[in-house]
Amino acid sequence: MGSGTGIGRVRGLGSAKHGAMHWWRQRVTAVGNLLLATWFVVSLFRLPSLDHATVVGWIGSPLVAVPLVLLTISVFYHLRLGLQVVMEDYVHEEGGKVFFILLLNFYAIGGAALAIFSILKIAFGGVPA
Amino acid sequence: MSRNPGRPLSPHLTIWRWGPHMVVSILHRATGVGMAIVAGLGFIWWLVAAAMGAEAYDGFYKVATSWFGYLVAIGLTWAFFQHLFSALRHFVMDVGAGYELKTNKTAAIATMVGSVIVTLLIWAPILASLAKGAE
Ligand code: HEM
Ligand code: HEM
User: Fold this and answer.
1) Complete DSSP assignment for chain A
2) Which of A2, A23, B15, B48 is 20 to 30 Å apart from A78, CA to CA?
3) What is the mean pLDDT of each run of 10 residues along chain B (135 residues)?
4) For residue A7, is pLDDT > 90?
5) How far apart are alpha carbons A20 and A7 in whole angstroms?
6) Is the CB of residue B131 below 6 angstroms from any atom belonging to ligand 2?
7) How far is CA A100 from CA A19, A80, A85, B42, B115, in A?
8) Atom of ligand 2 nearest to the CA of B25
9) Cβ of A106: how many Cβ atoms within 10 Å?
C-alpha cells in the first residue's frame, strides 16, 4: 500500500464486492415488507379487538402464523441491513462501529427468534386462549 | 483520508437550502430507524406477552390502550406510510426515472401529503369511537 493520495492508495484494489448485495437484499426485503407489512397493518386494524383471546385465536390460523413468521424474517433482516448503513454513516471510530454492529446483530437475531418462537407456540396450541 | 490542500474543494458544499426531496430523504431514514426500534420492540413485546398467557398479555394491553399507547400507535402508522410511500418513490428512482426537477419535487411532496392523509383516514374514526365510548 503506497502513501500517496487517497485515490492513489485505493486505485486498483476494486470494491469490497459487498455493496451491491447489501443494496439488493435491502430491496428484496423491502418488497417482502411491502406485501407482508401492509397485510399485517391492515389486519391489525380490522381485528375486532386486540384482547388476548382474539389475538391468540387469530395467530392460531396457519394462514396467519406463516405470513407472520415470514414478515418477522423480512422485517428484521431489512432493519438489520438498514441500521447497519446508518451506523456506518454516523459512527466513524472503528471500535464503536464494531460494538454497535454487534449490538445490532444481537437485537435483530434475538428479537426475530423471540417473535418467531412466540408465534409458533401460539400456532401449535401451546397457549390457552 | 489525506487530501491535497492545494486542490480546490467543491465551493457549494455548504451552500444549500431545504427542499422537499431532502425532507423526504431524511424522513425515510428517521422513520426507518424509528420503526426499527419502536415497532420492533413493540412487536416482540406483543408476541412474547401473548405467548406467555392471558395474565402477561394484560400488562401489554394496559400500556397499548393507554393514551400513550395510542400516541405511539398513531406515530407508527404515520411512520409506516411515510416510509412506504417514500420507498415506492425510491423504487421508481432506482430504475433511473423521476429525476426531472418538477416530477421529483411533486413526488416528494406527494409522499408526505399521502402519509398524513392515510394516517388521518385510519385514526379519525377510531378516535371518534373511543371518544364516544369514554362519554
Ligand atoms: C412497506 C414496507 C417497507 C418498504 C417498502 C421499505 C423500503 C425500504 C427501502 C427501499 C430502503 C432503502 C433506502 C435506501 O437505500 O436508501 C429502506 C431502508 C430502511 N428501512 Fe425500510 N421499508 C419498509 C418497511 C420498513 C420497516 C417496517 C422498518 C423497521 C421496522 C424499516 C426500516 C428501515 C431502515 C432502518 C432503513 C435504512 C434507512 C437508511 O439507510 O436511511 N423499513 N426501506
Ligand atoms: C439537509 C440536507 C441533507 C439531508 C437531510 C441529507 C440526508 C441524507 C440521507 C438521509 C442520506 C441517505 C439517503 C439514502 O440512503 O437514501 C444521504 C445520502 C447522501 N447525501 Fe445527503 N443530506 C443532505 C445534504 C447533503 C449535501 C449538502 C450533500 C453533498 C454536498 C449530500 C450528499 C450526499 C451523498 C453523496 C449521499 C449518498 C451517500 C451514499 O449513498 O453512500 N447530502 N443524505
Assistant:
1) ---S-HHHHHTTT---S-HHHHHHHHHHHHHHHHHHHHHHHHHHHHSS--SHHHHHHHHTSHHHHHHHHHHHHHHHHHHHHHHHHHHHHH--SHHHHHHHHHHHHHHHHHHHHHHHHHHHHHHTT-S--
2) B48
3) 74 81 97 98 98 96 96 98 98 95 96 98 95 80
4) no
5) 21
6) no
7) 19, 11, 11, 21, 31
8) 10
9) 10
Using alpha carbons, list the distances in angstroms from residue A112 to A115, B25, B85: 5, 27, 25
- Which residue ranges make up each domain of chain B? 20-134
Give chain A positions within 8 Å (CB) of B41. Answer: 111
ipTM: 0.88
Separation between Cα atoms, residue A75 and residue B37, nearest integer Å: 12
CATH of the domain spanning B20-134, picked from 1.10.3720.10, 1.10.530.10, 1.20.1070.10, 1.20.1300.10? 1.20.1300.10
Question: A9-43: per-residue pLDDT in tens?
Answer: 888 887 777 888 999 999 999 999 999 999 999 99
Is the pTM higher than 0.80? The answer reads yes
Domain that includes residue A30, residue range = 20-123
A83:B77 CB<8 A: no
Phi/psi region, residue B58 (left: phi>0; alpha: psi -120 to 50; beta: rest), is alpha
Q: Which residues contact A72 (CB under 8 A, 6 or more apart)?
A: A112, A115, A116, A119, B43
Phi first, then psi, for residue A117 (nearest 5°) are -60, -45
Q: How far apart are CA B48 and CA B110, in angstroms?
A: 37
Q: Taking CB atoms and an 8 Å cutoff, what residues of chain A touch B57?
A: 51-52, 55
User: Is there a domain that residue A112 lies in?
Assistant: yes
